[in-house]
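Why show two proteins at once? Because comparison is the fastest way to build intuition. When a single record is shown, students tend to memorize it. When two are placed side by side, the eye starts asking what differs. So, the first record is below.
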Amino acid sequence: MSVSARIGSGFGWKFGAILSLWLLSFAGYSQADTGASQSAHDVVRAATEQVMVVVKEAHGYADEDPERYYQAVDEILGPVIDYRGFARSVMGPYASGDRYRSLDEAGRNQLRDQLQRFTAIMRTGLVATYSKGLLAFSGSRIEVVDPAPQESENTRVSVRQLIYSEESQPYVLMYQMGLNKEKQWKLRNIIIESVNLGEIYRNQFQAAARKYDGDLDLVIENWSAAEADS
């Protein structure tokens, strides 16, 4: 079965559900006490074990009080997802170091403000759009594939996760993780069934930049994470 057939036409509800599982698989997990010995695979595996508790609790109130659900999700994702790095990657050459260095002080201040605003918009949009899809995977069996021996010394690794549902084959997710200066693993990007989420958003951003003749303020003002579903 093709990727588009399994995920759905475009990026439909099932993509949202898988992305929700990605977002919330890190919910409630803190690396504060784990130390440098904790691997990226350990982080994903431990967080995944906790996510099903979140799913079970959400069933009791998400329909009646979705804002409470979204707020709870937003509060627990910040420490484990590198939203700023993800947003900067989506902006691509418009937020590159070369472009930043080419600007005068006023231009640099503007770019910093644009990146800050875009980061906040992406964060809000992702959480609000996809959190509700998580409930679709209640009761699913989830496995994290063990790492290769040579990955233990890397500061950037990809963690492979399998999600079993009603389909004959599991969904395959690749978490792209990076070790920050505090020796904590941060989620930088995800690939769902060979679909690179970062590339999808980056292409969307560049298309919007062309539409608005390079006016990043207009791109950001008109941005919606929900456009990735179209």
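Second record. Ask yourself what differs from the first in the token line.
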Amino acid sequence: MRRSIVFAKDCLSLCEHWTWLLGYRRFQGIAAAQAITRLYGASRLFVNFFQPSFKLAEKHRQGAQVTKRYHPPQTPCERLLQAESIPDAAKSKLREVASILDPLKLLEEIRAVQAHLAALADGEQLPTPTPERPDLSAFVASLSSAWRGGEVRPTFSIEAKPRYLRSLQGVIQRAVAQTQEKTPQLSRSRLH
């Protein structure tokens, strides 16, 4: 199995799990590659240091019924700090990195890079970065009503913009014109 081939039959799960971050747009060029690298770096730090996840502790099968028990949710960093096989030097380095990171700043950077990528893919004007620090109290206050705004990712798009596709209306008009040329006895109303 070669995991580097993007569209091999057994590699789809390796590609699909990043669509929450990038969306389904088409990215081209060096600027997009650099932005994706920045996006992966920020999301890696956010997921590893601030996003807890469940891990399966045990699975018990009794006939057709499967009972699963999970460990309490923890971040990957917390799991590494609790592991006995990790040297103390590595644990102190992880604690140092965790103390420097700010989750709101990482989320802001992720959103800014997503907006940059969306603008690159759509051929629009690139957004200007905001130099001010994220406000924790404003962020927490906005959480109670954030669900009303819908999806907040800049890479999310309800309607895809037909950038590379031909207009369907133009295709239909050409087909009608060709049919009328071949069979002039048909009226225009019978073709529609």
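One difference worth noting in the second protein: The chain has a mean pLDDT of 77.
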